[in-house]
Task: structure prediction
Amino acid sequence: LIFCHLLLSLITSGMSEKGEKRKSKAKYAISKKSKGNRGTLEAGMRGILVSCSIQGKEGKCVVEAYNLLNQFLDQPEKQEEHKPVEDALQQELAALQSKSEVHELSSCETKTKGLIFIRTATADPVLLVHRLLDDALRTRQARSRFCQRFMPISHSCRAEIEEIRKLAAVVLAPIFTDTSPPTTFAVYYKARNTATLKRDDVIDAVASLAQCGSRHKVDLTNGEFTIIVEVLTTVCGMSVVRDFNRFLKFNLHAIVAPDEPSSPRPAASSAPLPDATPATTAVTEELSGESRPE
Result:
């Protein structure tokens, strides 16, 4: 009888311990899930719009995007030869301190299948994407299965035509002015899940500001700059980039694919970027016609 009581108490205690472990695991799973939800894409944010090669795998796409972009966050810029070593050390220390206080990359919901948005806290999205694509072109390694296209968004606003005009004036000002050297450009426009904007109205508004009268010309095949305009539901993102054809419209998988003999890859742009602009990558797309799917 005593043995039966002991056996029963052992079984009961074991079941209670298992129940507590299950509860703790459930709490951990819930807290982990809530921690990953960092909000929804909104006007005013900047970052990188990433298309997923397989719908339904957006979660894995986020993980891959983090792994890829983190590799190019801390690449040091070229230091001037006369700059004291102490200044360089102080700058590096300040960067480490700021990084400990701020999460540089965070994901946001886009409410669109096959698309994720990686928000950047301090890093320049255009420069970050350029580093990633340049490395992929040089090594011919994508190091990603689910991340397909990386579109930098340096500024964003509400998806309204008047707001887009105001945003374009800010984004284009460092490059397209009445006194800046004449250049060429094209506009890449893509809209998803929106019916409030007309494609031609947006392109005309952006292109007219970039032209500055007739100083800067539209070149749909070999423009020096590309103005990226991405509209996603109620948000419009914009950036100015170089080498858009060279990086095959920022398609990571296409960059590492073998070159076709009949279509040689465009050479890299040799002109330096203006100091006042974050542009570092891209150039070209149609100014008219329907948007093609990703």
